[in-house]
């Protein structure tokens, strides 16, 4: 078999993520490697920690990368914080709430769930009632769930958790860098993310931050691997995973530099560059940019005659779901859009599969010249599929948003 | 804070890995992303499976990548194959034997260990006696342990395992592509690897292969995540990790393409290119190349007057350990080599720390023009550190090896 060098087709990725990486992130990944304890490498690690403190809006010392996709960060947080038998409360408002439920269950936690209909979010008082009823050690609540496009308000929930003595964890994979998130101000104890959404990188590295309170819980279960260092006896219930043991991962990223794994150097280069670009743009500017292009996409899709799914007031800036018009085969239409226009939009999970498409405007693709071609192509695609569509309605409505809007000076596009 | 674009220093990485990546692998990683279910992407996934079947020398359908460093593959194999209470036998001949012991213990397995002195390997009969005494479900045996440079012979052990009904797992992170490995011929049930040693890639992706027998064990514990697909009830004891659930990962890489994670696209590009380059060179040629340059390095270090650590008959092709001469501060000398010559050699773990350096010749750096500069620089470094050294003895002895040797026509250098 002769296999060629990677020759990927040019795609404009306008689904719910992964999205196209910023070319500067791709370039960073092609930089030469250095050794894992090279002063250059440990310097990059320290810079990366500081850059993600800025991204998460936190002063948490324990801000680092877990080597794996965003699910790796979620599992690391949950397996390190929860001991078997601990109670965990998971409010679920889409597919990505099922994930912490599932992971916490596999850790042996006693998992309690609350659910709202897909397309809705929880009120703070509903969360408070659920905490009062279940008395969990940890609340695991996704911020943005791309399966429904909903952005769960978190502002008031940290205070509730502090008052009731509950650790508060959130997954910000889908939201970080494109929606307001304030780790310290909102009282979060743990947050995990990924690069492939608003951060404009590839999947494969998971930024994680732990509050001092959460780090203390994890360090209470510290247990150094035999063969690495002697003299420190295990304390607390040993964490059920070696790879996801955040106590050991903190030792690797901290002063001790105890070997735990060989850091995925190229992915670290990518993660560093993602956060560097975010810091250079300014987080507020990046959020404003995602809001603008998200509004343009929303207006464009409506202007074309499509119906938006879910509670638009709580929609994430970076993704929108629209109902597939009657009579249109959603997957066939998506395939046509990919083959004829090189543009990818997203299908859906579970109860929404076949009913809605999900369209993203995030990271490098939160740009006018990504939004406008997508709307133009979708109009043609819908017409070909036999759907009623307002000619020029999509791009026209988006253009009106752009005419009225003004981005902050520092925002990228 | 203003942080610059990644500006890594040029390093020649001659430690036990990570090593410099082949420039073609770095280039592959900078290719544009495609969507995770794009026909191009699923095509790359299928090609990657086939390329790693060639690398592992197997026909196993279940040959795929786990998204993480090599430890991720190890943990995925052990947590997916072992249920709590299962007996696991771990023969330990260096640091990397402690790792499966530790991981299997965290999975709740009843772990039995055997140990030989660092620098030695196990005989097949010693393994057979240990199996007879402990009756494990699984034998976990590292092939090459860079902490001691030993290459554990595996040829006869698969037969023993089959006869005694034991699953046979090995970690080939440090050996694959540079030392003979025959997954099917030797009767392995599971093997896991990494890219950062002989495969000339960065850390961050772990190729894994499961025999049909091992895949059956894993699939006996299959449990599909809620919110993804309905109708398939869990069977067997649920795997204690979601991220490392090889049953779900097989579904993602298989026909079903059930969403489990968002594949780390750039790392997949890297993994594919590593195995593509290996296939293009030919595995036998690649092993011969590693053997030649390993021999040249060994001869050169001895020619300089250094004493080699461990049982040289069982030394891996790609790494050698030498005793640090009396009176030389090993870490200070390594630092001088890095700062003055841009060359990195390795320190050591546990009982060998401060006693030996480890020097690698692997992947892209299994080349004459990596070996010779390293020997030349080490002579100067040793002289500066006040050690007795044979002037010109290192490069002279290596040159003799190169003069006598002839690489197969297809080998790279």
UniProtKB/TrEMBL annotation, chains A, B:
Family in the record: Belongs to the class-V pyridoxal-phosphate-dependent aminotransferase family.
Renumbered residue ranges of the record's region Disordered: 1-21
Keyword field: Aminotransferase, Pyridoxal phosphate, Transferase
Organism whose genome encodes this protein: Arthrobacter deserti
Residue ranges constituting the Aminotransferase class V domain according to the UniProt record: 40-347
Superkingdom as given in the UniProt entry: Bacteria
UniProt biased composition (Pro residues): 1-10
Taxonomy of the source species: Bacteria, Bacillati, Actinomycetota, Actinomycetes, Micrococcales
Cofactor(s) this protein requires: pyridoxal 5'-phosphate
Pfam families for the chain: Aminotran_5 (PF00266)
The protein's name in its UniProt record: Alanine--glyoxylate aminotransferase family protein
């Amino acid at each position: 078999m002769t296999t060629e060098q990677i020759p990927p087709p040019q795609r404009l990725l306008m689904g719910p993520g992964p999205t196209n990486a910023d070319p500067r992130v791709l370039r960073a990944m092609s930089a030469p490697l250095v050794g894992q304890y090279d002063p250059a490498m440990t310097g990059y690690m320290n810079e990366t920690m500081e850059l993600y403190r800025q991204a998460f809006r936190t002063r948490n010392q324990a801000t680092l990368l877990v080597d794996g996709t965003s699910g790796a960060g979620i599992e690391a947080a949950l397996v390190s914080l929860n001991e078997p038998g601990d109670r965990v409360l998971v409010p679920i408002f889409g597919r990505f709430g099922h994930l912490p439920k599932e992971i916490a269950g596999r850790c042996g936690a006693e998992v309690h769930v609350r659910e709202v209909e897909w397309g809705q979010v929880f009120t703070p008082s509903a969360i408070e009632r659920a905490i009062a009823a279940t008395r969990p050690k940890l609340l695991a609540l996704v911020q943005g769930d791309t399966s429904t496009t909903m952005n769960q308000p978190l502002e008031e929930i940290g205070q509730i958790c502090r008052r009731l003595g509950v650790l508060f964890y959130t997954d910000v994979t889908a939201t970080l860098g494109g929606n307001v998130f304030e780790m310290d101000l909102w009282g979060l104890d743990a947050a995990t993310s990924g690069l492939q959404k608003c951060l404009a990188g590839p999947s494969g590295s998971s930024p994680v931050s732990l509050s001092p309170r959460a780090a203390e819980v994890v360090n209470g279960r510290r247990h150094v691997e035999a063969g690495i260092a002697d003299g420190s006896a295990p304390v607390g219930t040993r964490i059920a995973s070696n790879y996801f043991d955040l106590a050991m991962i903190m030792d690797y990223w901290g002063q001790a530099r105890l070997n735990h794994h060989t850091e995925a150097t190229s992915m670290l280069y990518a993660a560093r560059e993602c956060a560097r670009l975010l810091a250079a743009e300014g987080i507020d500017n990046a959020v404003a940019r995602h809001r603008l292009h998200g509004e343009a996409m929303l207006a464009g899709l409506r202007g074309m005659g499509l119906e938006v799914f879910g509670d638009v007031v709580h929609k994430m800036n970076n993704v929108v779901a629209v109902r597939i018009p009657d009579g249109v085969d959603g997957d066939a239409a998506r395939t046509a859009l990919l083959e004829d226009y090189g543009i990818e939009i997203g299908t859906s999970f579970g109860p929404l599969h076949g009913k809605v498409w999900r369209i993203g405007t995030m990271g490098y693709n939160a740009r006018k010249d990504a939004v406008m071609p997508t709307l133009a192509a979708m109009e043609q695609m819908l017409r070909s599929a036999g759907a009623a569509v307002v000619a020029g309605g999509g791009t026209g409505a988006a253009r009106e948003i752009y005419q009225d809007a003004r981005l902050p000076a520092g925002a990228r596009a």
